[in-house]
Amino acid sequence: MGSQREAAQPQQQQPPVQPPPSVLLLPLPLQGPINCFLKLAHLLTLSSDHLNITFLNAEFVHQRLPDLPTRLPRVNFSLFSDGVPGDDPRPPEKFASMVSFFENEVIRCLPEFLKSPAPATCLVVDGVFPAVVERAKELGIPVVYFSTLSPCCIWANSFLVPKLFDSGEVPFKKGMDLNEPVSDIPGEEEISLRWCDLPGICRTHDTTDPYIQLVLKECRELPKAQGHILNTFDDLEEHLLAELRSLCPNLYTIGPIHLHSRTRLEPVTEQRVTSNSLWQEDRNCITWLDSQPSESVIFVSFGSVVPMTIDQLIEFQYGLVNSGVRFLWVRRPGSLVGIEDSSLQVPTEILEERGFIVEWAPQEEVLAHRAIGGFLTHSGWNSTLESIVEGVPMLCWPNGIDQLVISRFVGDVWKIGIDMKDKCDRVVIEDMVRDLMVRRRDEFSKRADRLSKSAAQAVREGGSSWQGLHRLIQDIKFMRLQVHSETVPK
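Structure for Glycosyltransferase, as requested:
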């Protein structure tokens, strides 16, 4: 009888099982941001078993990296068109229209991510998509920005750029000396920025340009997110980060993200980290480097976007050849303005003696090679951090975006290289290559080595970037509960 009475009693109802937090990752579909967001996805899967991750990817990127689902089996990939046909990397002149089309496609589908078995509870988004951010907030999805620009540029964009546009100091006046210092820099009086060091949009001649308006809106919207992920480490930019926290208190410094990803992977597997390059890498350059003396080669690469004229290419060729320094030079297909390719060739005897040219290279591996002693770079943020991690001094030839600010910091704040901004003369190039690789080599290498060790410490267990990632994951889990409580009817 007792067992019958017990059976008749209603069973205690179990609380419903909550799905794990579900994170949407939305990068700008260009090489640098894609690489950073894929590294973030990798870090999140390595660091937590309790996150669902969906990567909102451009179709052309997925076509170029078809092995992504195999490499990141715990990441779901949702594909969107950017409105540009084909799978070739996108040219700069299509940037604004590409972003607009891609953004509208994501906005249209965003509500669907609330209807899945694991509804979206957090959106990590590149700051260049303000309309997506607004729609996510309307749907009750917390937003964390991941701006893959350098924090020194984000700082300038936040505190200087809108003010300069509003006051009419940008566009620059005709005949203005761009080497003059900018006055009244907030919070960083010890950093001397010249007008030529300001972010690339300050060099515009047309403030109505859609790209300029897009970046300005991003600058003004920055403080409105629940948090900001930065690809940096505290020791590198301590004072700037303090300034940024006055505007955006919730910062997650988790970089250098490529080193952080590699460090978390090493205890799990000995597998080499796979490249996220949208171009086919020529590994013959590694074999060539193996035959070169230690720290004797300058690596030359101007990134995935920077265009060059044939005249600029000629000046760099003469400067490199005349310097007498060994060089490994990446000459990306389609990088020359107005022509498909160039018949300009480095003399065969020079290539046989001390030069090697490829269309694309495994950059992280190249910079880590013992033969590399310097990096002639466009000063993109990914390239700069990769160079810092390996302790390689830099010769900076920036083109725009955040590169103009970064090159100033490399040369005059961190003092780990030379800023060759706005110069493209064979005599100057020859002289500065010799400065970097011979005359001032020791002074640059000692400072670069100190920063390299600091970066490694930041991503080890207990380091500042390790802790930043841990806090990010915990906050994502907390935001899941926050969103759930806000959506429960009272």
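The CA atoms of residues 195 and 247 lie 23 Å apart.
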